[in-house]
Write a structure and sequence with these properties.
- This protein is mostly helical and 57 residues long.
- It has one domain (2-56).
- The protein has helices at 2-21, 27-38, and strands at residues 45-46, 52-53.
Length: 57
């Protein structure tokens, strides 16, 4: 049972990281770290040419 919980958490973490990847962030490690620090991205957040460049906090 605990291993199933870990697998589900890793899958969810990856799904959220893909959302950051779609905002022009590098997938590993930036997208995964942004899930921890910022959660999911808003419409204005992203990496690079977005109004709120989260890589330069």
């Amino acid at each position: 049972m605990p291993s199933l919980v870990v697998v589900v958490l890793v899958v969810l973490w990856t799904v959220f990281a893909v959302q950051w990847k779609e905002k022009d962030c590098t997938f590993v490690p930036t997208s995964y770290l942004l899930v921890i620090t910022h959660g999911t991205p808003s419409v204005f957040e992203g990496c690079g040419d977005y109004p709120v460049d989260v890589t330069h906090d």
